[in-house]
Design a protein that fits this description.
By secondary structure, this protein is mainly α. The chain has one domain. The protein is built from seven helices and seven strands. Strands 5-7-6 form a three-stranded mixed β-sheet. A hairpin with a 4-residue loop joins β6 and β7.
Amino acid sequence: MSTGDTYIAGWKTADDWQAVRSKLVGNSDPSIWKTVFEDYFCTRLNLRYFGPIKTLQEHGTFQGEGFSILAIQCTLIEFLESTVQGLKYRYLRKGETLNPNEYSSSREIFVSFLCKRDPFAKDFDDTLAKDFYENIRCGLLHEARTKNGWKVWAKGPVDSIISRKQRIVYRDNFQLALDSFVDWYGKTLCSDNTLQEAFIRKFDDLCE
């Protein structure tokens, strides 16, 4: 059940979403989808994720804030991919099974994003994506560190997100790649019915 006064994107509440949702169902008008993308998706990302990352980048000392930046980026990846697919996370207890449009494996969603979504797909394959998930994402979120020799640097070669050989993640390049993905997603959302239906499912979930 939705809580109407829950803030989901800046000052936008679950009630606001329900009001605009009625205009979205069955409506492929690019202009309304562009507005919803900016008002709900971009506002949520900018205020909760990209804004704090930018603050850390601009006021950092290169003495460790890269770990905080990459941790924020890692928490965002699962949301991005589950939004593209229109999936809801559910923790499965013994004997339970998933309903349609639900998932329980964060690893699968995370790997899917890195291997399928540009510009990440040019640098990641299944093996590297799983390595990243286990030793960077889980290392940062569970132990506040990277593992198995992975390092975080601020910048790397142009268009290079990660160095497999040197086991380095370039956190500023990684952010540029996220920006590029979000730009693609916003443009495609305005005309892709499958993405639009998935978007509605995801924001319905956020309002529960």
